């Protein structure tokens, strides 16, 4: 059942297509050349810069900002892309407020204003003019590597492997590459089909083939890939949404926020989407914020984001919380889902919540409850690993760390020749920029491993 089917009983937005398009325009306006020059001049170009240490993809931030200040936008972009080939999307979606910009030495009691690193990064990438791909492939190695998943981790890994002269085949279940950037980020954060344009740019390196419609555990087995390729990288993410564990969870009007966001991002006409005029979003991370804000932008008149703990424990940053409040989203804390409320037709009409409190570090119910009316409920309580993806005999040999795949410091799994990165592993943070770094590091590890095998032979 599709999102449209699940919410088919709901009305559509009253606003016209042009008005909705305007509401979903770029969240953060790009810097002008003058603004970029002034902002880059604020950088102190620190030695052993704390912003670099805070960047998961280890971009040489002072160096690229210095290039901008010297009007060398091309050099700035190449510096960024050499460390993070998806630097354009990361500049837009990365939580810079808790990473590089939080670490900026300008972010102190006297100034309270870090250098706007994310916007400067975007300025460099958006204004560089490449007549050809900025990186060249090494001579062909004769080695073939399978990459499973065309998300940020898989794309990053494939690009770096291609640079080393290896042939790469990416197996992707969906009809488009990009992963979270294409299907899971709020529409107002990545506009103008940016995710696909970035994929097209990345593929210009050559040596990368993407085969769509292939899903691990369905028509693709790890055992077969292991026999056919010299190495494998798994960038399969977290494909399943966690469930509430409440009765009536399958009722029309209750669905995963990621499912609706996917439909919204792929829609060419937002007026055709079902609209919950009164909606509840369950969760505390950026996906919950994205869902709530987008429903408000579509025209919902009552949007409640509900979390079982307090504001300080929310996964969403203060910046994201501010975006929600600015879009008339009500943030309710210390409330836990207790029951799904249905109307006479068996459709969602609201939810009952139990008020919560912390006692000795553990969450408890206060015994009080309250109800919220809603036409739809969207769950954003976290993603889970799709165990069906690793169902063949070889896949079952992979060591797990909790629900995710265990990897060592070189991103190698417990099975030799198989590497993994991104959200499907427990290494690092569940961020696009972290996934890109995983892919890059895994590619370097794979390349080194293949070189050792060649020398040994």
Features:
single chain, 457 residues, alpha/beta, 5-stranded parallel β-sheet, 34% helix
Number of strands: 17
List low-confidence stretches.
none
Secondary-structure-based class equals: alpha/beta
Average residue-wise pLDDT: 94
Oligomer: single chain
Helix content: 25-40%
* Lateral arrangement of strands in the main beta sheet: 3-2-1-4-17
Query: In angstroms, what separates the terminal alpha carbons?
Result: 53 Å
Helices, by number, come to: 17
Radius of gyration: 23 Å
Q: Which term fits the overall shape?
A: globular
Main sheet: strands, sense, barrel: 5 strands, parallel
What is the percentage of strand-forming residues? 15-25%
């Amino acid at each position: 059942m599709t999102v449209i089917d699940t919410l088919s009983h709901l009305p559509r937005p009253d606003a016209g297509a042009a008005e909705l398009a305007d509401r979903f325009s770029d969240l953060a306006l790009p810097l002008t050349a003058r603004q970029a020059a002034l902002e880059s001049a604020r950088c102190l170009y620190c030695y052993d810069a704390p912003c670099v240490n805070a960047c998961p993809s280890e971009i040489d931030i002072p160096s690229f900002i210095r290039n901008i200040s010297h009007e060398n936008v091309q050099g700035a972009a190449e510096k960024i892309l050499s460390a993070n080939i998806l630097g354009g999307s990361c500049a837009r979606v990365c939580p810079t407020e808790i990473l590089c910009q939080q670490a900026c030495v300008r972010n102190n009691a006297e100034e309270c204003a870090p250098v706007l690193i994310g916007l400067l990064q975007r300025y460099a990438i958006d204004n560089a003019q490449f007549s050809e791909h900025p990186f060249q492939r090494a001579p062909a190695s004769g080695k073939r590597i399978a990459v499973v998943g065309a998300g940020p981790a898989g794309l990053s890994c494939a690009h770096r492997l291609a640079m080393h002269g290896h042939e790469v085949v990416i197996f992707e279940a969906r009809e488009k590459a990009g992963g979270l950037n294409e299907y899971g980020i709020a529409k107002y954060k990545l506009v103008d089909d940016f995710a696909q344009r970035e994929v097209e740019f990345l593929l210009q390196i050559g040596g990368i083939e993407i085969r769509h419609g292939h899903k691990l555990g369905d028509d693709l087995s790890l055992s077969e890939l292991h026999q056919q390729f010299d190495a494998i990288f798994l960038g399969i993410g977290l494909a399943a949404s966690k469930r509430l564990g409440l009765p009536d969870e399958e009722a029309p009007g209750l669905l995963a926020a990621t499912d609706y966001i996917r439909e919204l991002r792929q829609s060419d006409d937002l007026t055709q989407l079902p609209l919950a005029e009164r909606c509840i979003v369950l969760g505390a991370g950026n996906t919950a914020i994205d869902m709530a804000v987008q429903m408000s932008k579509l025209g919902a008149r009552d949007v409640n984001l509900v979390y079982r703990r307090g504001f300080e424990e929310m996964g969403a940053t203060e910046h994201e919380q501010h975006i929600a409040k600015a879009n008339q989203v009500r943030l309710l804390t210390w409330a836990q889902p207790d029951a799904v409320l249905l109307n006479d037709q068996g459709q969602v009409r609201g939810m009952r919540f139990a008020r919560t409190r912390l006692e000795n570090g553990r969450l408890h119910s206060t015994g009080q409850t309250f109800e919220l009316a809603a036409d739809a409920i969207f769950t954003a309580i976290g993603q889970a690993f799709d165990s069906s993806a690793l169902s063949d005999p070889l896949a079952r040999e992979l060591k797990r760390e909790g629900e995710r795949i265990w990897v060592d410091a070189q991103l190698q799994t417990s099975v030799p020749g198989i590497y993994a990165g991104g959200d499907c592993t427990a290494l690092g943070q569940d961020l696009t920029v972290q996934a890109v770094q995983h892919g890059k590091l895994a590619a370097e590890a794979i390349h080194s491993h293949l070189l050792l095998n060649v020398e040994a032979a």
